[in-house]
Amino acid sequence: MTWEPVVPPPGGGPSLDWPRPPVHPFARPPGTVIHDLASRLRRLPPSCGPVRLIGVDGHAGSGKSTFAGHLADTLGGAPVLRLDDIASHDELFDWTGRLLSEVITPLGHGETAHYAVYDWHARRFGPSRALPPAPVILLEGVGAGRRALRPHLARLLWMELPPEESWARGRSRDGAELREFWEGWVAAEQRHFAEDPSRPFADLLVRQCQKGYAITKGPAGTVGPDREITHGDDPSAMC
Q1: Residue ranges of the alpha helices (H) in the chain?
Q2: Are 51 and 133 in contact (CB under 8 A)?
Q3: Is 12 helix (H, G, I), strand (E, B) or coil?
Q4: pLDDT tens digit string along 84-112?
Q5: 3-state secondary structure string, 153-166?
Q6: Tens of pLDDT, residues 141-192
Q7: Alpha helices, DSSP H only, in 50-162?
Q8: pTM score, whole prediction
Q9: 237: number of Cβ within 10 Å
């Protein structure tokens, strides 16, 4: 089967409203949980030079972009490197080498990274964007927890939403115009996670609730630096 993406941002799922997908209707401003998480992330030891690099991974449509935006705001404006800007039509998932050379290596040396940003409408890379070292940088998108990146992450967060539900959210959001793209995207994402899964290595699982988020210990079992996060903002704890 051959397929031709239209104007997708693959890390967060396709969207006609690119560059950023709309906020999910159940999303709420972050509560105490996300503030607690931000406080803990600030206290972690650096993982990539002077940077605490935090991966936010999950299936397309799982709410990664919305959550990363809330977390970045809570961190006082932490930079967010979105894998939508790194991937391209020709390299939906085969962008590891560029990310390592253009971003991870310079940050690891305490230097400003420069990476070309892909234009999904023009189908070409645009001008280079600077990413100076910061205390915390969020790496958000499908594949943020891949094996080549995990050694450089201070923590890996996984958006805990089943793939079928995530993809259904994305399809509903984008409508019939991108139906063909979604067919191709789902197959590509399934191949990627079959070969290079992220969830088994997640330190924390993030579930979007009707009010805020619930965060629990992930399969990797690393939380720190002092105690687990096992509570949520929704008093009913129903997500």
Answers
A1: 32-42, 64-74, 96-99, 105-108, 163-174, 179-195
A2: yes
A3: helix
A4: 899 988 899 999 999 999 999 999 999 99
A5: CCEEEEECCCHHHH
A6: 999 999 999 999 999 999 999 988 887 787 777 777 667 777 777 889 999 9
A7: 64-74, 96-99, 105-108
A8: 0.82
A9: 11
